[in-house]
Amino acid sequence: xxxxxxxxxxxxxxxxxxxxxxxxxxxxxxxxxxxxxxxxxxxxxxxxxxxxxxxxxxxxxxxxxxxxxxxxxxxxxxxxxxxxxxxxxxxxxxxxxxxxxxxxxxxxxxxxxxxxxxxxxxxxxxxxxxxxxxxxxxxxxxxxxxxxxxxxxxxxxxxxxxxxxxxxxxxxxxxxxxxxxxxxxxxxxxxxxxxxxxxxxxxxxxxxxxxxxxxxxxxxxx
Length: 222
Known about the structure:
This protein has six helices and ten strands.
């Protein structure tokens, strides 16, 4: 599904990713862990086209390295950045539906994907009409996950989703990811995190990134 081939990324004169060579299989759930500054966020942003990449990034065997960032969500990629970036003047449901509106999905497709979001995150259905500016930080992360699911039919990338969550909310978020596997077993999921213990319950494989290089890969039970 996703492959990095000798991928280098610099920000200014600072090397962030160094010769990354990684393959992630279709329907795999992968935890990408590492300390702050290790390159986790840059890895996801590079897939989205937000960095200047040397080397190659492939989705389903297609080289997307030079593809415009605006076209990449149309490949079935959903991305939830670390900062939620919700539109506070929109309702929760309007925030979730927004990517589908921008992508000009037909009404039936939008309705089917919204139904999937609510099956994965049933509490969002209850919050649908609430202004996004009135939800808590943890609830906002749930909304951001729902929004990413509107386009993430092939690849879903979640950047530090557990950061700042209270234990109860972290548990609910983890349960939602477990339901996602039941609702859509084909989607490939990448979750970045500094604390690997938070991802053990659902990540099938853990990749450890240090100084922009994959230093270790350990397999885990599903």
